[in-house]
Amino acid sequence: MPRRGIIAACAAAAALLAGPAAAHAAAPNPFYGVVATHFPTEAELDQVAAAGAGTFRAQVDWKFVEPRPGTRDWYGTDVLFGLAARAGITILPDLLEVPRWMSRNRNRPPIFSAFQRNEWQALLTDYARRYGSNGTFWADHPELPKHPVTNWEIWNEPNLGDAIGGKASPKQYVTLLKLSSAALKAGDPAAKVVTGGLFPYHTLHNTVKMTKYLNAMYRVPGGAGAFDALGVHPFAVQPRGVLHWVQVARKIMRQHGDAAKPIYVSAFGWFTGGRGIRFTQLRTKPRQQAAKLTKAYRLLSQNAGRLGIASALWFTYYDNARKGTDSFLDRAGLFNLRGRPKPSWFAFARAAGGTP
């Protein structure tokens, strides 16, 4: 959670524990949602819910929950899950990265020593016990609508070397999934493990393309049983390409006898600016971004039943030029750097059936 996220959480704390839940014309649809790399405010969550979207994918970074070994700080996650519940939204937590007391390489998964494995599993069991289907957080806050977290995403784009802290290894990732699944279900038998979204292409050093990586995961003993849903990040030049990569993933799952599991399109989108935009085929103009969003959501929703698509999440909620950078990767938002809506925001609300 960025420092500004902690400040936002502090400002929102009073609202979490006081006042009625926000009222919406209709229950937000969990098929539609957004991805954010920031800590959302109450107003942002209400805005997403009013647009009709019921899922908000948020990074939950270990170092903010356990800044020192054995010391849990639940404040930020309590605020996050509480505000989302008041808005009628369910958080899809993306559990990733390790604190510095665990490893100097924050992206390296905690599987390489008994100490790392035990600490990771203890953390995940505590998550599930606190926020899961019978979570203590909900019992302690009866004033909140109960929106238990039962789907937990493990890491992000694990087939990219940079995201996994080294060479992408399906075998190592399956180990992480197995540890995570056992720990989460020990805290909540209803917990489900969603894989980190697989990226389709071989574009970077130590990257393994999605097709090769997913087939290799299934060949690892116990690989199929290590997760309950597959996450994919089907970025593509055109909307039909988004659907294509979902179809490819489903075909591989069927070939391995795993056709019943749902697929989460946990990130997709197009970029409208930023440094390096000339070097990506995903670049587009704001109005074109809106048109592609509309067509992609139409294709995904029309094929959701056939392909078992549980959710389709737009990357990202708003543009975010981080200090010292302004990469095109930060310019896929529905809102621009000034917080003003792009045409894609109105297209998103129309797709989700809500009000922008």
Please supply descriptive tags for the structure shown above:
single chain, about 350 residues, alpha/beta, 8 strands, disordered N terminus
CATH architectural arrangement: Alpha-Beta Barrel
For the terminal residues, how far apart are their CA atoms? 27 Å
CATH topology: TIM Barrel
Tell me the structural class. alpha/beta
What share of residues is helical? 40-55%
H/E element order: HEHEHHEHHEHHEHEHEHHEH
Radius of gyration: 19 Å
Question: Could you name the CATH homologous superfamily?
Answer: Glycosidases
Strand ordering within the main sheet: 5-4-3-2-1-8-7-6
Mean pLDDT, as a whole number? 92
Strand content: 5-15%
The count of helical stretches stands at 13
- Quick one: CATH class? Alpha Beta
What is the count of structural domains? 1
Tell me the major beta sheet.
8 strands, parallel
Instruction: Count the E strands.
Output: 8
Tell me the overall shape: globular
Account of the 3D structure:
The protein is α/β, with parallel strands linked by helices and 356 residues long. The chain has one domain (3-352): Glycosidases (TIM Barrel, Alpha-Beta Barrel), CATH 3.20.20.80. Helices cover 40% and strands 13% of the residues. It contains 13 helices and eight strands. The protein has helices spanning 3-16, 42-50, 62-65, 75-87, 114-131, 136-140, 161-164, 170-187, 210-219, 239-255, 286-302, 304-307, 343-352; strands at residues 29-36, 53-61, 90-96, 151-154, 192-195, 230-232, 263-268, 309-315. It has an eight-stranded parallel beta sheet with strand order 5-4-3-2-1-8-7-6. β1 (29-36), α2 (42-50) and β2 form a beta-alpha-beta unit. α2 (42-50) runs parallel beside α4 (75-87), α5 (114-131) packs across α8 and α11 packs parallel to α13. The longest helix is centred in the middle third of the chain and has 18 residues, at 114-131. The protein is globular and about 50 Å long. 49% of the residues are buried. Mean pLDDT is 92; it is low at 1-12.
